[in-house]
Write a structure and sequence with these properties.
By secondary structure, the chain is mainly α. The protein has one domain: Winged helix-like DNA-binding domain superfamily/Winged helix DNA-binding domain (Arc Repressor Mutant, subunit A, Orthogonal Bundle). It contains four helices and two strands, in the order αβααβα. Helix 1 packs across helix 2 and helix 1 packs across helix 4.
Length: about 90
């Protein structure tokens, strides 16, 4: 199994939004879901999660605005990851 990798700057918010789109949950659950969904490749450290969520003890859910932000973030990510994939395929 590959070691855990560090999450790219700006990606954590996208992963949190996508995770919350599935169901509301506590901060610890968000970190666990991301780790499980990535097959243990992405492991969110408390030092990264705390600032992103403000406090782990709170309960989070997406608002309509949050869902709209998720859609924008996903579109941006898809565009960027497609561009990177194209470069990697050609080099």
């Amino acid at each position: 199994m590959s070691p855990a990798v560090e999450i790219l700057q700006g990606t954590l918010a996208l992963l949190i939004l996508k995770t919350l789109a599935l169901e509301p949950m506590h901060g610890w659950g968000i970190a666990q879901r991301i780790q499980q969904a990535s097959r243990d490749i992405l492991q969110i450290q408390q030092g990264s999660l705390y600032p992103a969520l403000y406090r782990l003890a709170r309960f989070y859910t997406l608002t309509k605005t949050g869902r709209q932000q998720l859609e924008r973030e996903m579109a941006d990510w898809k565009q960027m990851s497609t561009a990177v994939a194209l470069i990697l395929q050609r080099v």
